[in-house]
Design a protein that fits this description.
It contains six helices and seven strands; from the N terminus they run αβααββαβαββαβ. The chain has about 150 residues and is of the alpha+beta class.
């Protein structure tokens, strides 16, 4: 483990500004070198660069050294929903560990244990909502589910 210098006031100010002014987005990040990606696709590196530049100029991807992000706009172009659905679960206390283990096996975007009137929050792609709900109904220990579908980002 390396010892990191503490952040300067200016670094903290920059990080805070980026956080406050930034927008939360869905991105899928691929950490790959372009020569590896061109080989996987069976195209030359030059051809890959042309296609990446077009996608970047249209706002479908962001690129940097060693990574490519697919943006919300790129996901929409692929027909992937950028407006998720949320499922709230009430779980029997003695079955929580079992239920959480089962949730980890489902095709969900993210899942959280939470405190309050419900025990878990699951975020899924809208297109997967019915499939995930059917699987949840078969998990012993789930006492109640409530689903919410997003309409649009505000």
């Amino acid at each position: 483990m390396t010892n990191l210098e503490p952040l300067t006031k200016r670094s903290i100010q920059l990080l805070k500004t980026l956080y406050e002014k930034g927008k939360s987005t869905n991105t899928y990040t691929l950490r790959v070198k372009q020569d590896e990606l061109s080989s996987q696709l069976g195209v030359s590196r030059q051809a890959l660069n042309v296609h990446l530049r077009k996608l970047k100029n249209r706002g479908y991807i962001r690129t940097g050294r060693g990574f490519i992000d697919v943006t919300d706009k790129g996901l929409s172009a692929l027909g992937v929903s950028t407006t998720p659905a949320f499922i709230l679960l009430k779980v029997a206390p003695i079955k929580r560990i079992y239920v959480y283990d089962q949730i980890r096996e489902l095709a969900v975007s993210r899942a959280f244990r939470i405190a309050g009137e419900v025990d878990a929050l699951i975020i899924v792609e809208r297109d997967n909502l019915d499939e995930v709900l059917k699987k949840l109904y078969n998990i012993d220990g789930i006492e109640d589910t409530r689903s919410y579908v997003t309409i649009e980002e505000i």
